[in-house]
Specification:
By secondary structure, this protein is mainly beta. The protein has one domain: Immunoglobulin-like, CATH 2.60.40. The chain contains one helix and ten strands, in the order H-E-E-E-E-E-E-E-E-E-E.
């Protein structure tokens, strides 16, 4: 009987751990006009853990270079800047959205058309990797600021 309770308890604990952690909600990639060399991915990252996490890296075969970015205001102009990490608070969430944090897809290897699914791999600070399928779609009108890079990506690559 004790053995059955112990096994049942371990199974319950294991089920709770399997559901804990960071999850991705509503992942999407911005559709770009033909010939565009960059796009961006957006989503909400939810952390059900009691400790904070951070997104530290992203990968995708659709782009030669993938970076974590944010927007800043620079003398009245909104510009993108790379960031080393995007913090996800314990028990909270962070939105990657137009005008804020996002995943930049640079030097696209193929066009991204509406309805396409773009595979992304997200890496967290603890080494956890999340596989994500992001649907390509157009942003709502007025939701996406112009993509002004404050730095150049293509010279040295």
């Amino acid at each position: 009987m004790k053995r059955a309770l112990l096994i049942g308890g371990l199974l319950w604990l294991g089920a709770g751990l399997a559901q804990a952690g960071v999850t991705v909600v509503d992942a999407w990639v911005r559709v770009m006009p033909p010939g565009a060399r960059a796009s961006a991915a957006f989503m909400t990252l939810k952390n059900s853990d009691d400790s904070p996490h951070a997104l530290v890296r992203a990968r995708s075969d659709v782009a030669r270079l993938v970076e974590l970015h944010t927007h800043i205001h620079d003398n009245g102009v909104m510009r993108m800047r790379p960031v080393e990490r995007i913090d996800i608070p314990a028990g909270g969430s962070v939105a990657l959205e137009p005008g804020g944090y996002h995943i930049m897809l640079i030097d696209l290897q193929r066009p991204i058309k509406a309805g396409d699914h773009v595979a992304l791999e997200l890496e967290l600070d603890d080494g956890t990797r999340l596989a994500v399928q992001a649907e390509a779609r157009s942003p709502r009108r007025g939701a996406m600021p112009a993509m002004h890079h404050g730095h150049e990506h293509h010279e040295a690559h």
